[in-house]
Amino acid sequence: MFGKKSKKIIINGQEVELQPKPSPFSKLFSMPPKKINQQNTNPQPNAAPSLQPSTPTSTNAQQAPSPQIQIQPQKVNENMPGFSDTQLRAAKLKMKPPSKFQMYLEGVGAKSKGLENAMRAQGMKISMYQFIRNMMIVSILLAFAVGVAIFVLFKSRTALALPLDFIFAVLIGIVVYMMAFQSFLNYPKRQINSAAKNVERDILFAARDMIISLRSGLPLFNAITSISTGYGDASKEFAKIVEKVQIGTTLEDAIDQTVADSKSPSFKRIMIQAAVSIRAGADITSALQSVIDQLSQERVIELRRYGQRLNAIAMFYMLFGIIVPSMGIAVLSILTTFIAIFTIDFTVLEFALVGIFFLQIIFLLMVTSSRPVFSM
Question: Which of 1, 149, 265, 347 is least surrounded, with the fewest CB atoms within 10 Å of its CB?
Answer without folding.
Answer: 1
